[in-house]
UniProtKB/TrEMBL annotation:
<dbReference type="GO" id="GO:0030983">
    <property type="term" value="F:mismatched DNA binding"/>
</dbReference>
<keyword id="KW-0227">DNA damage</keyword>
<feature type="domain" description="DNA mismatch repair protein S5">
    <location>
        <begin position="208"/>
        <end position="326"/>
    </location>
</feature>
<comment type="function">
    <text>This protein is involved in the repair of mismatches in DNA. It is required for dam-dependent methyl-directed DNA mismatch repair. May act as a 'molecular matchmaker', a protein that promotes the formation of a stable complex between two or more DNA-binding proteins in an ATP-dependent manner without itself being part of a final effector complex.</text>
</comment>
<dbReference type="GO" id="GO:0032300">
    <property type="term" value="C:mismatch repair complex"/>
</dbReference>
<keyword id="KW-0234">DNA repair</keyword>
<protein>
    <recommendedName>
        <fullName>DNA mismatch repair protein MutL</fullName>
    </recommendedName>
</protein>
<dbReference type="GO" id="GO:0016887">
    <property type="term" value="F:ATP hydrolysis activity"/>
</dbReference>
<dbReference type="GO" id="GO:0005524">
    <property type="term" value="F:ATP binding"/>
</dbReference>
<dbReference type="GO" id="GO:0140664">
    <property type="term" value="F:ATP-dependent DNA damage sensor activity"/>
</dbReference>
<dbReference type="GO" id="GO:0006298">
    <property type="term" value="P:mismatch repair"/>
</dbReference>
<comment type="similarity">
    <text>Belongs to the DNA mismatch repair MutL/HexB family.</text>
</comment>
Amino acid sequence: MARINVLDKDTFNKIAAGEVVERPSSVVKELVENSIDAGSKEIHVEIQGGGEELIRVLDKGEGIEPDDMLKAFMPHATSKIMTADDLFRIRTMGFRGEALSSISSVSKVLMRSRTEGSDGREVYIEGGDLKYEKYSPMDRGTLIEVRDLFYNVPARKKFLKTRSKEAGTIGEILSKIAIAYPEISFSLVSDGKTLLKTYGTGDQKDVIRQVYTKKIQENTFPFHEEFDSLRISGFVGNEEISRGNRSQQSIFVNRRLVQSRTITVAAENAFRAFATVSRFPFLILNIDILPEIIDVNIHPQKAEIKFEDDRHIFKVVFDTIHKTMAEGLKRTFDVEPE
Ligand code: ADP
Ligand code: MG
């Protein structure tokens, strides 16, 4: 048997990074979530080469204190929780303090940030090593540039798809985040071309129109129901805009984009009671629930969550979608005489 060896920091960080940073879109997601947590109402994303060459995120959030700039890149460094108990009171998108340390260990990162009342600071980190740190004036907020993703992990680079596919995935993820945060204006520019622009009107319906099409917006039924421990709202499409796959479905729990079999199956079963062919509905489904009765810490990319009472969630989703479809179709039928 070989002897046990404790991995050095560099090796450990690269392994940990593999869980958080799978591809350029995972970097965009983590950075944008940080900008949201910083309270920014404006988030600009620019990418080059599908994000492999460059990912730049600029926000107008609260910024990072100069003394904290380097700490932000340490593993398990977070301003969002103090103890494990806080995991059940999560109101932020981030909480594990792993994104910046992971990203910076597999790329070249420049970060510039300024808080209200402090001087701006800039740091540059390559493959996890600090190259320089300096004073740098800027407006309040944070700018982060991630270059040459996976330059030091060739095995990972090989698994990336074509640059235009990676850019497409970034567009999809950012669109969904924009839907979850209608009060924030987002932009995405890829190789100089604007792929997405939302205006932060606060109305999810406007974002659906900006992200999808007028036709889709016109063929959806809104819903909004409140129960003791949760609120459910969103839009479900009629059969005309249904699809052969689930690409037009987004589920948000406490505004976090998640995958949930329980919710998907409940919504689809309810939808199919009104459909003539077996296709997948257009769906935007927001659940706002007490953080105490969910577990958000079961997946490295936070893409899955666990509900304390799965059956209750299933019933709430099924009943809401069923009722919405029934009433929506009835209204459509009433205003369009044969
Ligand atoms: P987490 O989001 O889980 O706390 P990250 O590694 O993503 O961990 O970020 C580490 C810390 O850096 C955050 O807790 C936050 O304090 C700070 N930070 C990162 N990005 C920003 C930003 N855009 N604006 C303000 N603070 C930020
Ligand atoms: Mg984060």
